[in-house]
Amino acid sequence: xxxxxxxxxxxKKLRQERNLTQGQLxxxxxxxxxxxxxxxxxxxxxxxxxxxxLAKGLNxxxxxxxxxxxxxxxxIRKEDAPMLDGEQGHYRIYSYFxxxxxxxxxxxxxxxxxxxxxxxxxxxxxxxxxxxxIDGELExxxxxxxxxxxxxxxxxxxxxxxxTYANRQQTLLRFLVVNYYPGR
Length: 184
What we know:
Shape: globular
Number of strands: 10
Distance between the termini: 26 Å
CATH superfamily of the largest domain: Jelly Rolls
Radius of gyration: 16 Å
CATH topology of the largest domain: Jelly Rolls
Number of helices: 4
Strand content: 25-35%
Helix content: 10-25%
Order of helices and strands: HHHHEEEEEEEEEE
CATH class of the largest domain: Mainly Beta
Largest sheet: 6 strands, antiparallel
Structural class: alpha+beta
């Protein structure tokens, strides 16, 4: 099934499970009612931040909007991993493993072009974010703190605050992100 249709089906299902109207969800998520409607129809390709806003409004992990049932053994090739890009197109995130009723984490492979950045509005209050840098140097601003993470290094931080991934180098930055949802 195509990603837009998966998101449409999951968004409508999650919204209806919570007995929310499209307008109520739009208000909770800080997006327009028209956007919620268009996404539920499968007529929109939402950005990463729009999906984060909707997930936060529904109080679910981001990838629950893209969830499909996985088999016991799953191999995901990069070309098959759903890819979303940031507002400016300089940030690409590939979703390898989504949060499901039997999995309380998400695994992403991320690419950030040189001399660019991407801001995240923040995730669920109970979540934890683990980042491992493969190539390049990541400048992470989380709340008031700024961290420099080199290739081969990792960081754990509270992602419920607004945070920004920045690449101050000219080369491509590649990193992995695991969002963990304790108690889910």
